[in-house]
Amino acid sequence: MAAPSGKRCDHSWVSVDDLADELKIPKSTIYGWKTRGVGPRWTRVGKHLRARRVEVDAWLDGLGAVA
């Protein structure tokens, strides 16, 4: 079932590549954040890291509150 227009599915996953492309930053920055415990919670799926889209969005929304 597709998500309603303009909304992302709560069950979707984001890769490090996806987030780096979205934020226009190097993947190494995301790996550094993960090492320091910054950013969304990452889950290892096989040899790949994934984060739930809702957690990424919540983290990004929280960044706006700090500024």
What does this structure look like?
The chain has 67 residues and is of the alpha+beta class. It contains three helices and three strands. A three-stranded antiparallel sheet has the order 1-3-2. A hairpin with a 2-residue loop joins strand 2 and strand 3. Helix 1 crosses helix 2.
Task: Looking at this protein, list some descriptive labels.
alpha+beta, 3 strands, 3 helices, single chain, globular, 67 residues, 3-stranded antiparallel sheet
How would the global form be characterised?
Answer: globular
What is the makeup of the main sheet? 3 strands, antiparallel
Total strand count, please? 3
Which structural class matches the secondary elements? alpha+beta
Count every helix, treating DSSP H or I runs of 4 or more residues as helices.
Answer: 3
Poorly predicted spans: none
Classify the beta-strand content into a percent band. Answer: 15-25%
* Global mean pLDDT: 86
Distance between the termini: 36 Å
Task: Write down the secondary-structure element order.
Answer: EHHEEH
Radius of gyration: 12 Å
Helix content: 40-55%
- Could you give the order of strands across the largest sheet? 1-3-2
Write the layout of secondary structure elements.
Layout: E1 13-15, H1 16-23, H2 27-36, E2 43-45, E3 48-52, H3 53-66
Antiparallel strand pairs: 1-3, 2-3
Helix pairs in contact: 1-2
